[in-house]
Amino acid sequence: MDLDMKDVVALCKRRGFIFPASDIYGGINGFWDYGPLGVELKNNLRDLWWKAMVVTPPIGPDGTPVQIVGLDSSIIQNPKAWVASGHVGGFSDPMVDCRETKKRYRADHLMILKSEGDKWPSFHEESEDEEIEKRLKKLNLDTNVSNYERVNLTDLDASFYEKIIAPDTKVAGTLTEPKEFNLMFESHAGPIQSDENKVYLRPETAQGIFLNFKNVLDSSRVRMPFGIAQIGKAFRNEVNPRNFIFRSREFEQMEMEWFCHPDEVEKWRDFWFEERTKFWRAVGLASDNLQIRKHGDDELSHYAKEGLGTSDIEYKFPFTAPDFGELEGIAHRCDFDLTAHQEHSGQKLEYMDPVTQDKYMPHVIEPAAGLTRGALALICEAYTVDESRPSGVYLNFHPALAPKKAAILPLSAKEEHVGPATKLYLALREEFAVDLDIKQNIGKRYARQDEIGTPYCFTIDNDTLEDGTVTVRDRNTMAQERISMDKVADYLREKMKPVSAMKVAA
RNA sequence: GCGGGCGUAGUUCAAUGGUAGAACGUCAGCCUUCCAAGCUGAAUAUGCCGGUUCGAUCCCGGUCGCCCGCUCCA
Question: pLDDT tens-digit profile of A37-91?
Fold first, then answer.
């Protein structure tokens, strides 16, 4: 089905899921606020992840539960941490613009064919020899590639730029000098701004985990292999925030660093990949819109260049379709981070196995998921057009994810209906996020609940007063059945179960 | 960052160089014993700044934001 993102965005605003940040000031590019229902949805996803990781971690390949502990580290850390992690040096891209074509290139992706002459053509570094020769011919230059010296643009002094012919033009000297695009948010710790107290807002939550590896090991009685999990905000100065909340400058991550012996990485990589896929299916992304994909070598991060690489769990968002967008990456970070922090901090971070006396630097398998991206995927997946019902659309959330689990609706606003309804509401809200809605006719109230994805409505009518039963109205089928009022909590509890057991809903 | 498009109630849309109208939503009242978002009423808008003009939501410039394409996405 062709889902128009415009409709999704409009519903999100209209019903209080997601608003533009600073809306009354005209918004701010790359930032979004989560409204009353959005925060419930996001919290539900967050809590389920925390439960799946920290509270009830999965049974490992050996039949016993794996060991994972939680952490909530500071967003701002000692800036040296980001030097060590490679973000200060590597998390910025040198970019050049072509004045002629207005195109922009990453300087480190441009390859120059240097020669004795004064015209040096440039190409994308992956260009095939065939297309290079073709273009050389067009430019009336020597077509023998071996007569040139291949140089990366970043290795050339800017004084040579006047000789360079940009990749999409015919004249030389149109490239600007490289500009740094630093993707790290900077701030200052302390009221005086100077280079002395410059700090960075974390671009990933993972580093806080590595920085606390030793603290956790020394305080928590964990033994290899084990994991440390963390959920929190991260910040990146994206060049071009796009696609609603998909690529924003402030977002939320759910990351788990799994520390293990280097010889066991393959086993754990496969294990976590399977577990994480199961998770996304269980929370409701069970359709063909979910796919898994292994990264190509050319797109690997600085920390994953060695080892087993990275695999993504991806979702087919309306704006990426027919392609997919990343939801979670499962990376083998090797021992890159711990080794780097050991070098830079001077602290020993190796693990000494208490049984075998084996000393080694642990390797890391990292399932890193986007919480905010996950919430967006849930909304897109749930959005269901149904012309036959008054609302025209409903959100098909799994009950465990729905912002409201149920609405309690007295059929009329008379006291004999409102009384028992209020009583039921007060009892249920102790355990579930529920709404009590008294005003307006029943059809209108059902429609409203459909639109915010409330899976069940419990209606109190005259029969309730006689036999103590209420009507359950199912969101997806609109079918009704009567159940005893004192069974309502059990009923809801039962409906939540599949997801907490990490099972795909029927 | 470039190119193109766009910016009117919460949402989706109208209209106009002379100060804005609808539908739905929201709120209030009524009606309703299960899909009747029914009836009555109310509140709510020209993104922001500047220019031209007697007068600008409309024309012009800037800015901010959104969408599409490119670029980018450790």
Answer: 999 999 999 999 999 999 999 999 999 999 999 999 999 999 999 989 888 876 5
In a domain, residue A85? The reply is no
Measured from the CB, is A30 under 7 Å from any atom of strand B?
Answer: yes
Residue A82 falls within a domain, yes or no?
A: no
- A189-226 in b/e form (b: 16+ CB < 10 A) is eeeeeeeeeebbbbbbbbbbbbbbbbebbeeeebebbb
Number of domains in chain A: 3
The residue assigned the tokens 């008054």 is: A390
Class of residue A359 by CB neighbours under 10 A (exposed 0-12, middle 13-18, buried 19+): exposed
Distance CA A28 to C1' B59 in A: 28
A267: domain CATH number is 3.30.930.10
Structural domain that includes position A99: 93-181
| Residue A75 within a domain | no
Same-domain check for residues A155 and A24: no
For A123, phi then psi, to 5°, come to: -140, 160
Q: Is A351 exposed, middle or buried (0-12, 13-18, 19+ CB in 10 A)?
A: buried
Residues A366 and A218 both lie in one domain? yes
Residues 10-29 of A with CB under 7 A from strand B: 10, 13-14, 20, 26-29
Q: Which amino acid is at A167?
A: P
pLDDT digits (tens, 9 = 90+) for A26-35: 888 899 999 9
Q: Both A42 and A104 in a single domain?
A: no
Same domain, A33 and A97: no
Tell me the C-alpha distance between A336 and A90, whole Å: 14
Q: Cα–Cα–Cα angle for A230, A234, A240, nearest 5°?
A: 145
Backbone angles phi, psi at A58, to 5 degrees: -70, 165
Is the CB of residue A478 inside 7 Å of nucleic acid strand B? yes
ipTM of the complex: 0.90
Question: Is A493 strand, coil or helix?
Answer: helix
Task: Report the nucleotide nearest the CA of residue A413, measured to C1'.
Answer: B32
Q: How far apart are CA A333 and CA A162, in angstroms?
A: 41
Residues A209 and A323 in one domain: yes
d(CA A336, CA A353): 20
CA of A450 vs C1' of B29, distance in Å?
26
Residues A346 and A377 grouped into a single domain: yes
Do A52 and A124 sit in the same domain of this protein?
no
Q: Is the pTM of this model over 0.90?
A: no
Six-digit token string for A17: 């899921």
Residues A213 and A272 in one domain: yes
